[in-house]
Amino acid sequence: MTAAERLFLEKGLEQTTIEEITTGAGVAKGTFYLHFSSKADVLQALRARFVQGVLDGIIAAVEGRRQEDWRGKLAAWSRACATGYLDAAGLHHLAFVAAPPATREGLSRNILIDHLNELLAAGAGENAWSVSDPGFTAVFLFNALHGAVNQPGIGETPAARAELLRAIEVHFLRALELRSGVD
Prior knowledge:
By secondary structure, the protein is mostly helical.
């Protein structure tokens, strides 16, 4: 998949051939067809790998916070998610924007939204914040973040990136009514 990703980013999905992918990966065409039936299947696998990579970064960031630090967990979630998108902007654009999107469901239900939903529900259960519908709030916050990081030219310099991450974190924290005394 790494060879396919590199070629898709360099040449585009349509211009890349399966032969170029197999040559770049150092495998026979038969091996390719054991795992994928088409370039569209490769693209779907790249989508899944991208989202899983972002989730892995989020999990590591959130788990790095103290158990009772709900504010820190939410801030870490927002920063790690935005960073994951910014770090792989080319792949994200290729897999989700330039190619036809898989479904509209991706912006209302995916593993990132599910993880945020679980975090919001757990924090509400610990009285860290008040949220009557964690699922709705997760969809709302994820899509706001997604839209912010997908703006053309956003976060291109280190200073602009730092400001973007700070702004996303601030908006995530403001979106929930944080209870006093909770860090």
